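Lab channel / #folding
Pinned by the channel admin:
"Please post every new chain as: sequence first, then the structure tokens as a reply. Keep commentary short and put observations after the output so the thread stays searchable."

First post following the new format, from NK:
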Amino acid sequence: MASSNVSYQNIAIKYGILVGIAHIVYFLIMWAIGVLEIIELSFLSGLFLIIGIVVAISSYKKARRGGIRYLEGFGIGATVGVVSSAILALFLVIFLSAFRTGYLENLQASALFPQGLTLLSLFALTILYGTIPGALTAFIAMQWFKREDHNTMPSQD
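Reply from TO:
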């Protein structure tokens, strides 16, 4: 792939979709094994976001043959966060409307969400809870990736 044809938006959207799918699979596994009521476990899916952002930035840097601008990396992280959390938010609204209408009460009781939580506010909070950590993760990761002497993942030759 030629480095001039690579856009950070395409890579960010690709990894955002993958991370969003990982969030959904994790949620469904939690539901299947009966631990969905332990709200704190859902925050472990933030590891998918961190891994997805780091791999996306690394992939972009490798595709650009080691060159990456700071704001491109930051944009990758923010976009991965927005895309993945929007996918999860849309899934949650559909899932909770169809299968688990009482789950909002569990979220309200957890003190991690506001008392007057509605599906619309859950949608907005889910996107917010993915976007802000995505941007912060990219900010931290770019401290490493912006360095000239940093190499991306070793080649698999």
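NK: The chain has one domain: 3-145.
TO: also worth noting, Residues 70-98 form the longest helix (29 residues).
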